[in-house]
Amino acid sequence: MKLSYEDFELGRRFTLGPRTVTAAEIIEFAREFDPQPMHVDEAAGRASILGGLAASGWHTSALFMRMMADSFLVDSFSQGAPGVDFMEWRKPVLASDTLSGHSTVVETRALRSKPGIGMVKFRHEVENQKNELVCVSENSIMFVMREVLEKTA
Amino acid sequence: MKLSYEDFELGRRFTLGPRTVTAAEIIEFAREFDPQPMHVDEAAGRASILGGLAASGWHTSALFMRMMADSFLVDSFSQGAPGVDFMEWRKPVLASDTLSGHSTVVETRALRSKPGIGMVKFRHEVENQKNELVCVSENSIMFVMREVLEKTA
């Protein structure tokens, strides 16, 4: 059964990944969205403070989004998100790194402005194969409530 | 001349875009990173609270990143960013929307932990062709200081 607002109980935790990031992917994303030298060129990456060919932070975020979609979002009555409270790129994500993590429900509330929709706040943590946190974020996502789905069923 | 830390004076404003977003791009990005129905299917988008085939918020963010790269980052001594303070996706970005905006320097400081590198905080505002803000964000980016560049020149 697809997840509705009520399924996101406080403390519920969803597993993200694993997902390995290749050098080719890093360069392809960066060429399109973030063509800074350390994201498109191996030697420039090594010479930078990132220490190697490193994914754009936005690429890391997009990969985290995909892991979240596969973990629980596509199989839910999600209505999208109004934004991101914060996003920390704590360590560079380098070519061949394997990412995994989890999203934990930290707050839930019914939306007064949108009856039948509830907002779920998550804390997301993504780490690399050395168990170093590479990305930490919190954001809220809107989900349809079960009562609405039952009425329209 | 490429921009170094000292060039990011308080209040300096950089123009972003314009950049038109196509339906094909929205679907391509979403299939790879955010395959929720409203981002990959026209009818599902119209049926959702987004009101049409809508770009993933992460796609909007990646497009904003590209506009920033083209505006000033690629032509600078950027050393990357430690994250995003916040990112608000205020309005859906729909197929055929044209985005533009600006990044304004709101804070600068030398990094004690990384001598020769300074942190510049920006406020970013992106709007659509109707002058509606679609994306508002603040984040800090690291830049090499001119004194370092002169020493190594």
From TrEMBL, chains A, B:
Pfam families: MaoC_dehydratas (PF01575). SUPFAM superfamilies: Thioesterase/thiol ester dehydrase-isomerase (SSF54637). It comes from the Bacteria. This is MaoC domain-containing protein dehydratase. The lineage of its organism: Bacteria, Pseudomonadati, Pseudomonadota, Alphaproteobacteria, Hyphomicrobiales. Residues 16-112 form the MaoC-like domain. CDD domains: YdeM.
